[in-house]
Amino acid sequence: MQNDLxxxxxxxxxxxxxxxxxxxxxxxxxxxxxxxxxLPPSEEEMSGRVAKTLARYPWLVCxxxxxxxxxxxxxxxxxxxxxxxxxxxxxYVHARCRRLGVGQALYDxxxxxxxxxxFVRAFAGITLPNEASVGFHESFGxxxxxxxxxxxxxxxxxxxVGYWQLTIQPVEGTPAPxxxxxxxxxDGKLREVLSAGSNKVxxxxxxxxxxxxxxxxxxxx
Length: 221
Known about the structure:
The protein contains 6 helices and 7 strands, in the order βααβββαβαββαα. It is of the alpha+beta class. The model has no long low-confidence stretch (mean pLDDT 91).
């Protein structure tokens, strides 16, 4: 696997990534209706969310030189037993890192891990309108599954949310229960999937990392 301090690396998230994840997510909460949260979670809350997710599902980060460029994760679609083969998925990329292959590498890797676990369907909710996100998801094979109209009120307006679904892998007969992520941690296939994802990111990221550092300094001021 590539060195996280040098070339971009896709790997499982850890507590040390909470600040970088929050730095990407907080502006989305504060400035857009993309997330229906209205107050950005604290770094401690974000760390807790990562830990809770990793008990069963993947939470990935793409990093370079200890900077988080983007992240993606899966979560429970519903707590009822018949839904256990379905997951909800999300991906967020730093505003400075778009069009570098970060989002694609994260989703490619996420779906590969979900296949290893035995999940079958993935669902993504998108606040509308959002042509970029719709196009991004449809490029992976997601198809529209429905829309909730005026389901959320934020920033002085009501917003629709569309749902897209993807078949992660075909299945015949009775599927085995999906394996929790911790059962894959010593699996060589997991390491192969993470290494393959890391190789999909544009390695020319020096200027991007410098820009992220500038953003962090301005936020600190």
